[in-house]
Specification:
This protein is α/β, with parallel strands linked by helices. The chain has 5 helices and 5 strands, in the order H-E-E-H-E-H-E-H-E-H. Helix 4 links the parallel strand 4 and strand 5. It is elongated, with a radius of gyration of 18 Å.
């Protein structure tokens, strides 16, 4: 029974960690320490992108990360923003932020939606 389950989810060696979200399995791609496992799980179970609503939060987000992906979308529920969030949900290596505040568009000289 266990071997059939392992075959179904393509488990080829041990230990293998699988994460299930909405019934779909995802391969664990993080490190092997407790801290890296927790960080990976927090990204998978939390929002795919941090919502940034102030200049200070945006500055902290970009300063705290060597590489930071920031999406500017005036309507956080737009189709483009949904695509951005779907990509953020699949990428584990980089932190993502979402900005919708008009004042941050102006302050960062962003004219239209984009990354």
């Amino acid at each position: 029974e266990d071997s059939k389950l392992a075959e179904k989810f393509e488990v080829r060696g041990y230990p293998t960690l699988k994460f299930f979200k909405f019934g779909k399995d995802q391969e664990y791609t993080g490190g092997r320490t407790a801290d890296t496992i927790v960080t990976w799980l927090e990204k998978k179970t939390g929002p795919p992108a941090k919502t940034v609503s102030s200049s200070d939060d945006l500055k902290k987000f970009t300063e705290d990360n060597d590489i930071a992906v920031v999406g500017f979308f005036k309507d956080a529920d737009s189709e483009a923003a949904k695509v951005y969030l779907a990509v953020a949900d699949k990428m584990d290596d980089y932190p993502f932020a979402l900005v919708s505040d008009d004042s941050l568009f102006t302050e960062n000289k962003v004219d239209k939606d984009g990354v």
